[in-house]
Amino acid sequence: MKIVFLGPPGAGKGTQAEKIVARLGIPQISTGEILRRAIREKTQTGLEAQSYIEKGALVPDDVVVRIVRERLAEEDCRGGYLLDGFPRTLPQAEALATFEKIDAVVTLMVPQELLIHRLSGRRVCAACGYTTHVDRGEEKCPKCAQNLTQRKDDAPESVKNRLVVYEEQTKPLVDYYAGQGLLKNVDGAGELEDVTKAILAALGCN
């Protein structure tokens, strides 16, 4: 099954994606991850992407699309995959449609107030990458005892801006896939396991 995951920052896409790919036995394709891999392996497209990143510019859609296309052509994607973080824009979705036939697009629906709470309360350990939330009451990293800090883009005002950008970029995508009958809206505000079950049910896999 070829799946696209959509959802605003804080919706739990990454966590749910890990559970879904484990259940379905397909790879999770993260745009950031394959971009970093292409740069690390010094592929032609990776070097092109790196030239934009080093200048502090966004990697153009056509370069991102090429990197995704190269990754989806690999052997482990033949039985399906889950795209996390791509497409982000309508032009990317239209480009994807020229070389792949997507089976389902899952959108995690979470109220804005909850998204802001989840993200602005997130704390990370700079030493080992451990992530937690202020609701858990952890003052030090339980793995390495270092201080927990808030990422700059998790500050309340930054979160609100990220959500505005997401809405502007993604609303056309939602309409695009809804028009094709591919969109599966899932309530992402519940308990982790309940959301996983709802996603599998929407995909017809439970």
- Beta percentage is 15-25%
Average pLDDT level:
91
Radius of gyration from the alpha-carbon trace, in angstroms: 18 Å
Which consecutive residue ranges, at least 5 long each, have pLDDT under 50?
Answer: none
Major sheet characteristics: 5 strands, parallel
Overall geometric form: globular
How far apart lie the N and C ends? 14 Å
Strand order of the largest sheet: 2-3-1-4-8
Description:
The two termini are 14 Å apart. The radius of gyration is 18 Å and the shape is globular. Helix content is 47%, strand content 16%. The model has no long low-confidence stretch (mean pLDDT 91). A 5-stranded parallel sheet has the order 2-3-1-4-8, sandwiched between helices. Strands 6-5-7 form a 3-stranded antiparallel sheet. The longest helix has 24 residues, at 156-179. The protein has 206 residues and is of the alpha/beta class. The chain is built from 8 helices and 8 strands. Helix 1 crosses helix 8.
Keywords for this entry:
single chain, five-stranded parallel β-sheet, three-stranded antiparallel β-sheet, 8 strands
What is this structure, in a nutshell?
This protein has helices spanning 13-24, 31-40, 44-54, 61-72, 90-96, 112-120, 156-179, 192-202, and strands at 2-6, 28-30, 81-84, 104-109, 122-125, 131-133, 148-149, 183-187. By secondary structure, the protein is of the alpha/beta class.
Map the helices and strands.
Blueprint: E1 2-6, H1 13-24, E2 28-30, H2 31-40, H3 44-54, H4 61-72, E3 81-84, H5 90-96, E4 104-109, H6 112-120, E5 122-125, E6 131-133, E7 148-149, H7 156-179, E8 183-187, H8 192-202
Parallel strand pairs: 1-3, 1-4, 2-3, 4-8
Antiparallel strand pairs: 5-6, 5-7
Helix pairs in contact: 1-8, 2-3, 2-4, 3-4, 4-5, 6-7
